[in-house]
Write a structure and sequence with these properties.
two-stranded antiparallel ribbon; about 30% helix; 2 helices; about 70 residues; alpha+beta; two-stranded parallel sheet
């Protein structure tokens, strides 16, 4: 029974990835962030915008190392 509950928990926890992410709207920015207050965004000299995870990944952005 414990194994089944653990498997269900693991499957459900993988689906908790947010679909809205935040990016620095700059041509040179390469990261996306789950949290709009991530310290990786503090150096953004442009505007910070919300976008979808799919859109960020399609723009060749990767997850910020502070949130990895």
């Amino acid at each position: 029974m414990k194994s089944i509950l653990l498997a269900v928990f693991i499957l459900n926890s993988n689906s908790c990835t947010p679909t809205t992410v935040y990016i620095c709207d700059s041509n040179t920015a390469t990261w996306y962030h789950y949290n709009e207050h991530c310290r990786g965004l503090k150096n953004c000299n442009y505007r910070i915008i919300a976008t979808t995870l799919d859109s960020a990944e399609n723009s060749n952005r990767t997850l910020c190392r502070w949130e990895d």
